[in-house]
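Box 4.2: Ligand-aware structure prediction
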Amino acid sequence: MSFHVYDTTLRDGAQQEGMNLSVADKLAIAPYLDELGVGFIEGGWPGAVPKDTDFFARAARELTLKNAVLAAFGATRKVGTRAEDDPQVFALLHSGAPVVTLVAKSDIRHVERALRTTAEENLAMITDTVRFLVSEGRRVVVDAEHFFDGYRFDPAYSRSAVEAALAAGAEVVALCDTNGGMLPHWVSDIVTEIRDAVGDGPVLGMHAHNDTGCAVANTLAAVDAGCSHVQGTVNGYGERTGNADLVTVVANLELKGGRSLLAGEGLGDASRIAHAISEITNISPYARQPYVGASAFAHKAGLHASAIKVDPDLYQHIDPTLVGNDMRMLVSDMAGRASIELKGKELGFDLSGQAEVLTRITSRVKEAEANGYTYDAADASFELLLVEEMVGERPRYFDVESWRTIVERTGHRGVVATAEATVKLNAGGERHVSTGEGNGPVNALDQALRLALTRVYPQIETFELIDFKVRILDQEHGTDAITRVLIETTDGQRSWSTVGVGPNLLEASWEALTDSAIYGLVHAGVEPR
Ligand SMILES: CC(=O)SCCNC(=O)CCNC(=O)[C@H](O)C(C)(C)COP(=O)(O)OP(=O)(O)OC[C@H]1O[C@@H](n2cnc3c(N)ncnc32)[C@H](O)[C@@H]1OP(=O)(O)O
Ligand SMILES: CC(=O)C(=O)O
């Protein structure tokens, strides 16, 4: 029996709070899902959501899918009507999607209280709608809504809803944990019972929500108990706490279960695809997401690093490249010499056999972190520290003579604050004095530093500060607190992060800004002058 991987990012994923996908967004996401290799892409609810009606119309003209087919989602016919007369059912048919997925009530309490109809009429609504769509040449999936809650309350009725869908010609019945309240052993027991009731032939599926934090586990339990169709969303998007994260489900089934489920690029590109989709949804990727998160294979503890140096498998559940991710070493006060050696290697420095240098760098990192620095979020500053310890000094692009900054407030009621900074430094054999203006003192300092350096190092014009984070440390000391600044800079091709610590915001920012300039120049291949 073939296995279905069914993606509902564009329908149930879009039900996530704060997510608002345009038709163009959906048309941009669908090819990524196809590239990943899912078998079905549920595009939305045509006839209910105008954007979704447009999506299916445009998809028919604009999308060429290699691996997936489109599924249009909608409901069974309304109470007391005929399926062929129901405009909502008609819209599903006219979406042009080869697959129609119908949400059908399978919990008697919902039938009586939400639909306000009888048990028999709901079964007739399922039967009629499935039959009609099948007779029109559609493949039909039935999402049995609230199936598990319903089954725990009245198993016979929930079973009869599944049986009605199958008898009418549904290709798949997906059992839905709509409220997301199930636990894996409940899912296991119920799927086993329903599989026994319907026999081996019909395709049963699982649609899980993550309200107990068990959506992936529940999906795996359902597969173990006889489901061969899994629904989910990329990045676990969805209503409330989300849907089962489809990449995690598939990675578990393929990499731990030895199955082969995805067509196309498959899991090897999963990290890139998951991140590309989060760019389109405009929802920051979750670093600790299993398999594809930026931290999924990041190692901080020194003891882990010392074993990883011998064999990465000792501290990793899989090889990260299997899902297109990378192993990373994090340098912090928890680092040991092995962490520094591996981080050095990651940055292109061979420190093997240099026990003394490794010890020096490790001690310096621990001391600096005790004083407020944080290198696991500032690789570029760590690299400069490493170079300094390896060769005795950091690249000397400039010598700072002095810097100062002032903030000026003008106007009376509509107060306007502007800042000005002056930087004096020596570079390229000359003294440079530059003044910069900005909407705040750090911005003004950044401008003044660039102006002073541009004359000697024009490459610096491409550098742009893209993120700035300030944290006050040791707050119990009140005004004696130290300030930590982390900045992220880009040259349009890559970005890097630096850290500065000082008794105030300006000193901390100055350190992070100068580290950033030096690191950027080194990586632009510029020689100090
Ligand atoms: C579990 C899930 O996530 S299912 C997906 C849910 N997705 C959405 O709801 C997004 C899109 N929804 C919509 O645009 C709207 O809610 C619509 C167009 C579907 C319905 O809107 P309205 O016509 O204004 O109806 P309203 O939302 O007030 O009520 C829904 C109606 O569908 C009925 N209904 C609910 N589920 C089903 C079902 N499975 N089969 C048939 N009818 C159903 C309800 O009984 C109610 O009927 P009534 O109008 O006779 O009272
Ligand atoms: C169909 C669906 O999205 C659910 O039951 O959760």
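In the box above, the bound molecule is acetyl coenzyme *A. The chain has a mean pLDDT of 95.
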